[in-house]
Amino acid sequence: MDRKAIIVVVLCFVLMVTWWPMYNHFHPAPPPSTNVVTSATNQLATGTNAPAAEVTQPYMADTNAPSAFVVSKEIPEQLLVVSNENARYTFTSRGGGLKTVELLHYPETVSSVRGKNSHTNDVATLHAPSLPPVLSIMGSGNETLQGDGVFELTQTNGVVHAEKKLTNGLTVVKDFQIGTNYLVGATVRLENRSKQPLTLPAQEWIVGAATPMGPQDNAQGVGVDWYDGTNVVVKPLAYFNTNTTAFIFFHHTPIWEYRAGSNNVVWVAPHNQFFVLATMPKVPAPGLVVRLVDLPHPSQEEIEAAPHVVTEPKGLETALTYPGVTLAAGQNFEQTFNFYAGPKEYKTLARIGAQFNNHLDLVMEFGFFSWLSKALLASMGWLNRVLHLPYGWAIVVITVLIKLIFWPLTAYSTRSMKRMQALQPQMKAMQEKYKDDPTKLSQKQFEFWRKNKVNPLSGCLPMLLQLPVLWGFYGMLRSAIELRGQPFLWVGDLSKPDTIFSLPIPLHLFGMSAFPVNPMPLIMGATMLWQTSMTPPSPGMDPAQQRIMRFMPLMMVVFLYNFSSGLALYWTVQNLLTVLQTKLTKTQPDPAAAKAPAPVPPQKKKK
């Protein structure tokens, strides 16, 4: 490769890595046109003076959207906590709903270095306490639906009861029942206890928010999924693009809000990478709305404690939408829900999906090769449960087994490519002889390949067949809670990059305060370079192209540098096994190659 080609490749890498950080730096998102969510405080605990009302409001692009969530702060907040063996549920009188769900067996933060303690001792928490609680109701007229927003909380026989009586005769009643397997049942009734009809406006019933797992979570796994009875619709945080231009020059309309549904919302699931708060209405909801919201910024202590803290975290607030309704005197409007608030554990989600017949396990987002992801996850679980292998070594064992399955195909491919190299002189002579007759050349080449038992596509076939395995691993590793916090050698968590330390390089222009050093993808890149250096080049490929192909591993290192270390571990073991097989195949004689005919030089025309 000449100097010019090297410069072009390097510039492409730099542009690929720095394009979006530079774009976001020079074209920051505009501020929202309405208020953002403000943080709630517990006046009962502090006893300090406060204004008459607290207003929380998401971004609202639709002028018909409900008004802000307003609660009175003259009355201290009442909290009611219910716990079981799996979770701690906190209910609030402000909005009469579920404020947070704390998962007792899952820490908020897991260190990427084995043996190193996490930065916090907090447990994983679903929903954000700064947002309106789950099953709070907002409508176009706050006085009609919630008044001052303060409910009366009571608990009887394990049922949490929230009730609000309004002056117009409407009573809002909510009952919550904590169940097993991270399930919560809830019933909401709008009761007209007056002697005249009541017309209620269109409503939004808050059903949870997708928020990062902790201060260092980059929110790549934050999103909202919903199921219409046939298909799953996925809306990640990246969908809500607040830029006003595209590719610098073209106008782009910021996306603050997403609306969907036509009486077919079977379930909706705000989630992050490993935890989900799924709402399953007994009767499919008419629609849903998802809005981008700001979350409270980390404290200065949190920023100083870790170099990768996200300073401006975002979340997605989700609500089910119901149309306006008129209640006759004494009439009720009731809705029943089941909530799953827990880890994205495939077995549990599949069992609950079968229980409610709603395919809730699709929230795992395994992708096109979901069957393969499920098989790989089940295999690793079996190795861990029955043979007591740690998950890291289970990945190694499964990689070896997969390599053994593909061993004959890869060996055939290597031998075929060696034969192609041995037959290159005959191929060049044939191309020279029939250069003026492409049809005849193709026919002769096909006959020549068949006679010598070679396949020009054999070099690509093993890679094409192994790509589904790679995608299966990727789909599984990015969302399976089983691998979270699982160590391997120096790696503390196979589900995220194995950062051992960070170089204090000022990269604020690119949204980074330090550069993370991740050994596993670097080792993966080195083994890929070793493998490509031993792989015979494809016949007919230009030498410059061959050199470029040898540097392709560098691009893969860039792509996978911040992916899960479990994926890099799989690829590293795969590369090492391929190197071993190539060495073994090269030492074995190939009878077909030994019988290859001698080169036939092109005949010169007589003058």
Give structural notes:
The protein has 607 residues and is of the alpha+beta class. The protein folds into two domains: 31-365, Beta-galactosidase, Chain A, domain 5 (Distorted Sandwich); 391-593, no CATH class. Helices cover 33% and strands 24% of the residues. The strands form seven sheets. The protein has a nine-stranded antiparallel β-sheet with strand order 8-9-10-11-24-20-19-14-15, with no helix packed on it. Helix 6 packs across helix 7. The two termini are 41 Å apart. Mean pLDDT is 78; it is low at 23-65.
Number of helices: 15
Estimated structural class? alpha+beta
Question: In one word, what is the shape?
Answer: elongated
Gross CATH architecture of the largest domain: Distorted Sandwich
Q: How many domains make up the coordinates?
A: 2
Which regions have little confidence, pLDDT < 50, spanning 5+ residues? 23-65
Highest CATH level, the class of the largest domain: Mainly Beta
The helix content is 25-40%
The name of the CATH topology of the largest domain is Beta-galactosidase, Chain A, domain 5
Strand order of the largest sheet: 8-9-10-11-24-20-19-14-15
Mean pLDDT over all positions: 78
Beta-strand content estimate: 15-25%
Total count of strands: 26
Q: Outline the biggest β-sheet.
A: 9 strands, antiparallel
Distance between termini? Answer: 41 Å
